[in-house]
Amino acid sequence: MKITNAQRAQVLVHALPYIQKYKNKIIVVKYGGNAMINEELKDSVMRDIVLLSLMDIRVVLVHGGGPEITDMLSRVGKKTEFVNGLRVTDKETVDIVQMVLAGKINKNLVNLLSVQGGKAIGLSGIDGQMIVAQAKDEALGYVGEITEVNTQIVTDMLDKGYIPVISTVACDKEGNTYNVNADTAAAKIAGALGAECLISMTDISGILRDKDDPETLISTIYVSDTPELVAEGIISGGMIPKVECCTEAIRRGVKKVFIIDGRVPHSLLIETLTDEGMGTMLISGDSL
Question: For residue range 259-279, what is the model confidence (pLDDT) as tens digits?
Fold first, then answer.
């Protein structure tokens, strides 16, 4: 379908209130899943982030990279073991995690943003001791539980006009490196930055009342209602820790958290710059 110049102008006019709303505000985007694996989708997401940045919206990109870590471990002959959804991480594994996350994936994303005309800089949780952690469980090895978030280096980069791209490896005061959950890191970074919103890009359309029926998408959830939704089985499995991270961000002062489908082209722009949005929004308060 061909779009006329008048229609293009109308789109921009409709987006204006949202551009004004987010101007000079911080948006944290947690990025992973299929949107990161599919090259065409990845290019689309990077273009969206550059466009938001050019609108003077201060975007911080926090990324994971579990599938690529698993692939690299397989290449070097290391078997991946998970306990309660967490990767058992010995010293050799954490070195590979750092290499893949802070090296390959982080720099590829920075490069893609630059190609699209963005001004990006790659950081890890180790830089400026941004993410300080301690061992979560001895049985898990170098899996970190975040104890401190220092965002000075992030705000410095934002003030200089950069898009910070953050890989979620952490450190402790003794110089050890830890693998930390990207959802948790994004929530705590968003809280520490006083972000206007956190947008979690996932592999589903949001939270559904019936997981097999996309028409049952819940557009708005109050964080006080999440325990009941867990008890009813509406929030279940891997969505439980994700929603817990979203709730953590709200409790740390983030105004809104969105769970959106990163597989949909331009889902980031649809969520931020239109009336309808497209995923599930979590906010503070309750429905009563």
Answer: 998 888 888 998 888 877 788
Residue 62: count other Cβ atoms within 10 Å of its Cβ: 27
Beta bridge partners of 134: 145
> What is 71-97 written as a DSSP string?
HHHHHTTPPP-EETTEE-B-HHHHHHH
Question: Strand (E) positions, 32-186?
Answer: 58-63, 82-83, 86-87, 120-124, 131-135, 144-149, 163-167, 169-171, 177-179
Encoded tokens for 6: 């008048």
User: Which token pair is 250?
Assistant: 């709200």
pTM of this structure = 0.92
CB 69 within 8 A of CB 96: yes
Q: Which of 20-34, 159-173, 192-206, 269-283 tops mean pLDDT?
A: 159-173
Query: Rounded to 5 degrees, what are φ and ψ at 90?
Result: -85, -175
Which of 165, 287, 193 shows the shortest CA–CA distance to 249? 193
188 burial (CB, 10 Å; 0-12 / 13-18 / 19+) is buried
Query: What is the mean predicted confidence (pLDDT) over 138-162?
Result: 95
Q: How distant, in Å, are the alpha carbons of 43, 114, 259, 287 from that of 47?
A: 6, 10, 20, 36
Q: How many residues does the chain have?
A: 288
- Contact (CB, 8 A) for 76 and 95: no
In angstroms, the CA 169 to CA 245 distance is: 17
**DSSP secondary structure code for residue 55 in this structure:** T
pLDDT above 50 (res 197): yes
